[in-house]
Amino acid sequence: MKKCCTFAGVKKRLFDNKFVIALLMLACVWACSPVKHVPDGEYLLDKVDIRVHADSAGNVAAKPEDLVNFLRQQPNHKVLGFLKLQLATYSLSGKDTTRWYNRWLRRLGQPPVIYDSLLTELSARQLRQAVVNRGYMYADVEVDTVMDAARKRAHVTYDVYPGMPHVIGAFNYEIDDPAIGPLVAADSMMRVIGPGDVFNRNTLDAERTRIAQMLRNHGYYSFNSDYITFVADTIPGSHTVGLTMHVQTPRRPEADSTRTEDMQHVPYSVRDIYFVVGDGNANAYGTGFDFSGADSVRYKDITVLYRNADHYIKPSILEEKCHIQAGKPYNAAEVERTYESLGQLGILKFVNIEMKPVATVDGRVWMDAYILVSRNKKQSISVEVEGTNSEGDLGFGVGLTYQHRNLFKGSELFSAKVRASYESLSGNLEGLINDKYTEVGAEVGITFPKLEAPFVSKAYKLRSRASTEFTVSGNYQERPEYTRVIAGAAWKYKWTSPSARYAGYNIRRTFDLVDINYVYLPNSTIDFIDQIAPNNPLLRYSYEDHFIMRMGYSYYRTNRRIPTGKQNSFTIQPSVSTLRLSGEMAGNLLYGISALTGQHKSDGAYKIFGIQYAQYVKGEADYTHVANLSARHAIAFHAGFGIGYPYGNSSMIPFEKRFYAGGANSVRGWGVRTLGPGCYESKNNVLNFINQCGDISLNLSLEYRMRLFWVFEGALFVDAGNIWTIKNYETQPGGEFRFNKFYKQIAMGYGVGLRMDFTYFLLRLDLGMKAHDPAMNAEPWPLIHPRWSRDSNFHFAVGYPF
Questions:
Q1: Which neighbouring-strand residues pair with 231?
Q2: Closest by CA position to 582, among listed 608, 552, 544
C-alpha cells in the first residue's frame, strides 16, 4: 500500500522543523550572549568613542585613531567592525572550569571587558597629556558615560577639546661647552624644529636624540641626550613660546668639589684597534681578558689576536670590514657600520665591540677598540623535507645542502645543493599522460663577502657592502606537456645601502652581470608536440632548444622593521611600503657579434652552437602598501605591472620568461594559468598551459585583513588584472593588447580568506569568486549570476599573497 503525505502532515513537519530551528537559534543566542559572564552589578564596556574637536582655526590636534593607544581600557575586539568573535567564543564556555572544553573555549576567546571608572578617569588624563605633548597646553577632555542597566552595557565617549596650539617664536641656544657650540651651530640647518613650528614635546625629544647622535659621531663618546634640556618661556594670554635649548656640561663628582673650574665634555679618539679572534662567545671575553698568550698579527692599522693556533680568518678580510679608524676621533656611526659589515661574514657567529680608555693627552681621551669575534661552524650538512605549493599545486620536496663558510679563510661561502620535488597538477589531461610534475636539480656556488670586480677602487668596494656570487646549475623537469633539461651559470653582485637604514629604509640591489641558460628538450617532447599541435608556432617555439644570455638589475626597498618579538599595540608600525623594480635584456651582445662577424641566419635567426638564442627586453614593477589601522586590522594594497618585448633574433619571448595570470598570488577567482591573455577562451587542457601566457601583465589587489583569535586571521579581498600579448599571435585570438579594449578585458574577482599565523610561517586558504570574466563576452557578469562550480577557486598557499 502506497503511503501518501497530507498537506496537514507536511505543514506539521515544517512547523516542527521551524520550531526546532528556532530553539537552536535561541540556544545559540543565549550561549553567545556577550554579558553571560558579566557579574551582577557590573557592566560590559561595549563601546568607546574618541571625538577630537577642531580649534577656532579649524585645525585638529590629532586623529582619533592616533589616540586609541592612550586608552587604559578598550572594548573587546571586533571583527569586520561589528562582530565580537573572540568574546562570543568565550561566552560559549560554561562556568564549570574543571571541564576541558570550557577551558579550551576560554583560551581561544577573550573575556568580557568590565567597565572600570578608575581606568576611565586615567584614560582621560592620558588623552589630555597626549594632546598637551603635541603643543595644545590648554587642552581639556570631557567624559560621557552611558549605562544601560537592562542590557548590562556601558558606552564611554571622550570629547577632546585641544584649544589653540602654542607655537615657537624665538629659538635660542645656551651651550656651556665652547667646543661643542660650533658643532651644534653648524648642524642647525638639520634640526627638526624651529620658529613657527607647534611646540610639540615629541619633536623636542627627537631633536635631543639627533644632536646627541651627531656629537657622538664627532668624538664625544660619553655624550647622551640627558645633557640637553629645553626651557620654554611663555607669556600669559599668548600662544607664542620662546624656546631655549640648553646643552649642559657634565656634573663634577662630589670628591672634586674643591675644584672651581668648569667641567667640559671630553672628546675621544681611537688609538689602536684589536681584533680578538676566538672560538667561544665573543661577549664572554671582555676587555679584561689576558691576551698575553694570544698569537698577535699586525696588519695595516689593526692588530689581530688569535687565541689559538687556528688562524681561521685572514687579517685582510677583517681590516676590510672594519670602518673604525685608528688615530681619528671616535665615530658612533663607524662602529655601527663595523657591526653590520662583520655581520656579513658567515664564519663569524658573535661580534662585540668594546672601547677601553687608555690615556688622556691635552684634554683628549684615547681609547683602544677591542672587536671580539667568535667562530661559527665551518661546515654543515642539512636535509630539508618540505611541502610545496605552486599557485595551488600541492607536492613535496627533498633537498640536501652542503655548506663551507670559510673556503679560503676569507669567509667565502661554498654551497652544493641537490633537490628533488614532486607536484600533483590540478589540470586533468584525460588519461593521456600522468598528471604530475617532477623535478631534480643541482647547484654549486661560491659567494665572496666583497665586491670582486676589476677597475673598481678599493674605497668604493669598502663603501658598497657588496657580495659576489658565482653559480652553476643543472635542472631536469618533467611535466605532462614536456620534458626538458636546463643548464645555467651566473655571475651576480648583491649589495645594500647602509645610509638608507638611518632614513628608515632597507634597500637591496642585485646586478646580474651575466646569466646564461641553455634549455634542451629531447626528441620525445618534439614528437609529442607534432602530434597534438603540428601547426602551432607558439607551441613549437616554446618547446624548441634555446639559449638565453641575459643581463639584469633589480631594486628592492621597504620600510618594514625587523620584528623584535616584543611588539604590541603600542609599537605597531603604522604602515609598511615595499617597492620592487627589475629589468633585464638578453641577446644584444651575441647579436652584435653575429652581425659583425657576418654570420648567416638559419631559419630567419642567428644561432650559436646550432641553437637559436633569445633577444628581448623585460621590465617589472611591484608596489605593496599595508596600512595597519590597529593591532588587529589592516588594509593592504598591491599593484604589479610587467612588460616584455622580443626583437632582433626572437619573434617571441621565451616561454619561461612570459607572464601568466590567475592563482594564489594573482587574480584569485581563477586557477593558476587559466586567465587570459585578453579575452582568449581556453578549450584544450594541454594547450592551455602554453597559450595562456603573455608579454604584458597587470595585477591589482585590495585586501582587508583582521585578526580573529588564537593564530587565525581573516581576509576579504578584491582582485583585478589580466595578461596580454604584445603582438597578434594566431594561436592566441583576442590576446593582443589594444588601448581601446584592454580596460574591458581586465578580469575581476573577490573572495574571503582564512590564515593561520605561526610567526615563522603563515598558512593561507583563499576562496576566490569570479566577478567579471573577459572570456565570457556574451554572458552577464558572474557577480550577478554566479555558478559555484565554474566561478569559484580554492587556493592553499604559504605566506601572504603580497
A1: 244
A2: 552
Q: Is the pLDDT of residue 236 over 90?
A: no
- DSSP-based three-state secondary structure for 771: strand
Q: Looking up cell 537559534, which residue turns up? A: 25
Separation between Cα atoms, residue 182 and residue 372, nearest integer Å: 36
CB neighbours of residue 296 within 10 Å:
11
Q: Is 419 exposed, middle or buried (0-12, 13-18, 19+ CB in 10 A)?
A: middle
Determine which helix (DSSP H) or strand (DSSP E) holds 321, and give its type and residue range: helix 315-321
* Strands 792-798 and 762-772, sheet pairing: antiparallel
Alpha carbon distance 132, 162 (integer Å): 8
DSSP letter for 599, please.
P
Who's near 528: CB < 8 A, 6+ residues apart? 481, 482
Distance of CA 204 to the CA centre of its chain: 31
Residue from 139, 143, 141 nearest 116 by CA:
143
422: which 3 cell numbers?
A: 614532486
Q: Cis ω on the peptide bond leading into residue 522 (within 30° of 0)?
A: no
Report the C-alpha gap between 765 and 798 in whole angstroms: 9
Single-letter residue type at 201: R
More confident residue, 98 or 378: 378
Grid cell 579649524 is found at 58
- Would you place residue 328 in the very low, low, confident or very high pLDDT band (cuts 50, 70, 90)? very high
Element of type H or E holding 366: strand 364-375
Grid coordinates given for 522: 629531447
> CA 246, 253, 245: angle at the middle one, nearest 5?
5
In angstroms, rounded to a whole number, what is the distance separating the alpha carbons of residues 28 and 49?
A: 29
| Contact between 521 and 482 (Cβ < 8 Å) | yes
CA gap 615, 486 in Å, rounded: 18
404-418 pLDDT, tens digit per residue, is 999 998 999 999 999
Residue 46 pLDDT > 70, yes or no?
A: yes
Q: Using one digit for the tens of pLDDT, what is the confidence trace for 136-193?
A: 988 999 999 999 988 899 999 999 999 889 899 888 889 888 889 889 888 877 788 8
